[in-house]
Structures are given as C-alpha cells and as structure tokens.
Amino acid sequence: MYHAFGLNIESEIELPELLYSDGTADITISLGKVPDFLENPIENTPWYEVGMGQFLLRVDGISKYYVTDGKHIIIEPDHEADLDDIRVFLVNTVLAVLLLQRNCIVLHGTAVVIGQNAIVIAGASGTGKSSIALKFYDQGYPLLTDEVCVVNTKENKAFVYSGIPTLNVWHDTLRKFDIDLTLCRPIRKGLNKYAYDISSQFICSEIELSAIVQISNHNEKKVVMKQISGGKKLGMIMRNSFFQESVQDKRKNFFDCKMISDQTGFYDLEYNTQLDQLDQVFDMIVREVR
Asked: N or C terminus of the chain: which is more exposed, having fewer CB within 10 Å?
C-alpha cells in the first residue's frame, strides 16, 4: 500500500519510488490481461487509445497498461520486460491519466515550496525543469513533486498535491551538483537519468498554488522573465497539461483552469541552457514570485 497525489494506492507490484501508506485504497494496480483495442475510442493513435473512462497504452517490449474510471490500472508486461522500465511508464504517464480521469488538472512540471505557497515550474521536456528544482533543493527549499504535477481545487482555491519524493535528473546535472551517483537509482536501462531521493526536504501534503512559471530556452545571454496575463494564462495551462482528452468532466476542468488563471501568477522564463545561469534563474524566480 502506497500514497501519492492525495491517494492511497494498493499495488500488486512493488513501487519503491512511492511513500508507504496504511489507509484504505482509493485505486488499485494489478497484473492481468488487458484489451488489445478499445471499442469506439475518442482518440486513437499507434501508441495509445482513449475512450470514455478508459485509456490503453502500448509500449513495445515493455508493457500494456489499461486504466479505467480513475480507480483501476491493469498491467500486462512483456515477458522479457524489466520491472524498472514498467514502473517508469506507470508512475509517470499512466498515473497521470488516472488522475485526469478523476478530473484533476495534471501538469508536466515540478513543484517547489517558497514560503507558504507552491510554485509550479512547467515546460517541455529538456528545458531544465529538474535542474532548476535541484537548485531549489540545494538551497534548502522543500519540494512537492517532479514530472507529474497535480492541481485540485476546493473552496475556490487551487492546491498542489505532493507526489513522489524523487527528482528525475540527468547524469551531467547530478555531476554539476557534486552528487554521488551511487546514491541515485537509474530510472531505466540505457538511459543516463537517475532518481534522486528528496525525502529529506519533501512535503507530504497539499500546498496552495501561488504561481506557475513556464520554462523555455533561448540562445541569448540574458535570463528573461515576464508576467503573463489575460487569455494567455489558459493557453499556458493547456500547453503544459498531460492527455487532455482523458479528462472526464470537461466543463468542470475548464472552470477549474479558469479559476486558477484568475487567482494565480503566471510567468514565462527563458534562459540559455548552454550557459551557467541556474543561479540567475533561481534568484529571479524567488524574487518575482515573492
């Protein structure tokens, strides 16, 4: 039994990335046979299919995953699949879809805590979100989640839910921070990315959302951060969201996104990953969002 994203998870396979729990299960993860195809899918691609309350993911050589009603995940592994590889897709993509089926807002990002508030650092893969999060961690700031960032609304406020107490960081970034690689677990074979334990500064709770900072890269020498306003805020949420087609109650999702855009600070930050600018990025985020 495990806990993540405000849910208790009962799983047939071990999930060492997650925190243990002794509560009643909200969702179950089991091994078994999954459908080859969905009937009348809303979205159909060579890799995944989306139906009403259903999601089917096929990862060649690793596993098939079937998600239903925001409550159940069935895994059908390839007979030669490595368990680490199976878990990578499970705790990232597949859990994100399950949370979408529960009408959560699920962003591709990392969340740090500044003061009493959560700051989401969002952006496309490769823009340096985890490097920035590691900088915050190195400076003593608590973290809430990495990769999958879940936002829920209640009482007209938005909250970020704690996820998994690891940062997924590339090999060269860990070396820049003088982190011993033997203390990290490889995420999967053949990939120079490691899971770095952040449990010493991890908050297992829900924290009110204060700002969303979208990270992108440019070739300039300056770090540029500007505030976003108006309809561009909703666009930023959509651009940084996981599989929107899996959301069950799209009307609720829209109004939740609108409430977040009305009450939250939005920023666009551009920096050059080829230059040593993490100190500037860190200082600018802390100064602006405070």
From this structure: C
Strand partners, 196: 167
227: nearest Cα among 269, 264, 267? 267
Report how far apart, in Å, the C-alpha atoms of 215 and of each of 31, 104, 212, 271 are. 37, 22, 10, 8
Residue 260 one-letter amino acid: I
Q: How far apart are CA 2 and CA 88, in angstroms?
A: 16
Which amino acid makes up residue 229?
A: S
The single residue listed with the structure tokens 């939005």 is 266
**β-bridge mates for residue 197, sequence order:** 166
Query: Does the structure show a pLDDT above 80 at 290?
Result: no
Q: In what order do the strands lie in the sheet with 27-31?
A: 19-20, 2-4, 7-11, 27-31, 72-77, 63-68, 54-59, 48-51, 43-44
In three-state secondary structure terms, 78 is coil
**Rounded Cα distance, 246 and 115, in Å:** 34
What digits encode the pLDDT tens for the residues 225-266? 999 998 899 989 988 988 777 887 888 888 989 999 998 999
Burial 192-222 (b: 16+ CB within 10 A, else e): ebbbbebeeebbeebbebbbbbbbebeeeee
**Are 272 and 218 spatial neighbours (Cβ–Cβ below 8 Å)?**
yes
SS3 state at 104: coil
Q: Give 152-163 pLDDT, tens digit per residue.
A: 888 889 999 999
Calculate the CA dihedral of residues 163, 167, 169, 175 and round it to 10 degrees: 180
Instruction: Give the mean model confidence (pLDDT) for residues 161-173.
Output: 91
Q: What's phi and psi for 20, nearest 5 deg?
A: -75, 155
Are 270 and 216 within 8 A, CB to CB?
yes
What pLDDT digit, counting tens, does each position of 47-79 carry? 999 999 999 999 999 999 999 999 999 999 998
